[in-house]
What we know:
The structure is a single chain. The chain has one domain: Growth Hormone, Chain: A (Up-down Bundle), CATH 1.20.1250.20. Helices cover about 75% and strands about 0% of the residues. It contains 21 helices and no strands. About 0% of the residues have low confidence.
Amino acid sequence: MDEVNNENMPWINILSAWSGWLIDGFVSLTYVLTIVSNPAILSIFFPNSAFLGLGFLFSTLGFALSGGIARFMGSAIMGNFIGDKIGRRTMLLISVPIFSFANFLIFFVPGFSLIGYLSPIIIYVIAFIVGFFAGAEYGGGTALSLESVPVKKRLWVGAFVQSGFGMGFVIIALVSFFLSNSMSTSYYLSYGFRYLFLLSIIPGIFSLFLRYNSTETEVFSDMVKKKDTVKVPLFSMIFSKGSDSFKQFLILIIIIGGLLTVNTATFSYYFIVLLHANFSAGFEKYIFIYIMIINVISIVGVFFGAFISSKLILRKESIFILSIIFYIITIPVELMAANSNPYITVSVLSIQAFFEASIFAVIPIFLAEKFSKKFRTTGIGIVYNVGGTIGAFGLTYIAIMDVFFKSFIGSWLIVTLIGAIVLLIGTAMTSETLTEIDLDKKNIIDPITQ
């Protein structure tokens, strides 16, 4: 059996990948905070950007295009020309300082009242840059971390690295709470929210330090030594496994597209329902604490998903079962969340976030085992970010639904359930990967090393 021989845990590589997802969570929630939780902020950069209606639709559509499609382009270009040809570490060293610094620059962008339509154009350009270089994170981080650890530790390492995204949510929610409560509401909405973007440079510096001290994986180094890299990893990925390879590639996009549509719909719903007028006066100032609690519970859910998968062994089966559980609880959870008691609301939303996050726990190892080392960063990156582009339109789907249905709960619930159904269909269509039990048998080759 050919496998990674180093039994030690290379924590610097693992933390390097984890930190990138932490920044991604930090940055992603920064945009959600500005678009969803405080719709009045949109009017600073966009003309006539009401929370409901065409203004909101075009604003969310613009962010989906500039962020989502940019992530796909970044994963394809950086994975194809750097991650799978020069190195996973090199790609991650380039990506993190650029996208964290670009996000930091939003702090300085003048509003629409000062520079007119240049304001939203600059915002979209920066969002594109952030998305392009953030697109390298998932494929590169997954490859760097999982290629560095032994077979039996990969599931848990993948879950840990995945938890970085939730930790980024927790940190930005905590920062938002302190900022919003240390300033007047009018100052926070007019200018104070910008500090969220300013502070994104701090985790960027932390991640850059980790990556500078990380090492290239033995899997990739061995591939370079044997001159086993391919000229165009993207083409090799699509055509190397025969006529069925492109079909499987599309199925993986369906899985991730469904999952990230769910993710966009649920987390945007959390802000909406927590800001709903049913709550008693005074509770709105604790929204960021509520969001932090929900995300802390979701991090626990990631490790619960890893535990369940470790017992079930099969990756596909784990994703399918955890998705079924999520689907079953979603309708009662979202109906119960829209009530006048914030404690009940936070409790049921935390339950939903817990089971949603449990699905994500299996995704890194599942995708890593699906792609050869020759195009792993390209394959994982494209699948995740094309799926992410589909998911990034979640707010747009919801805005369209709201135009037709005019329902406070219905629009979010419908989009969440459709995303979950797509996830289940895609999972049912895909094939299983090798497991630790398979690899214990003689003459079975470790997919991570191939």
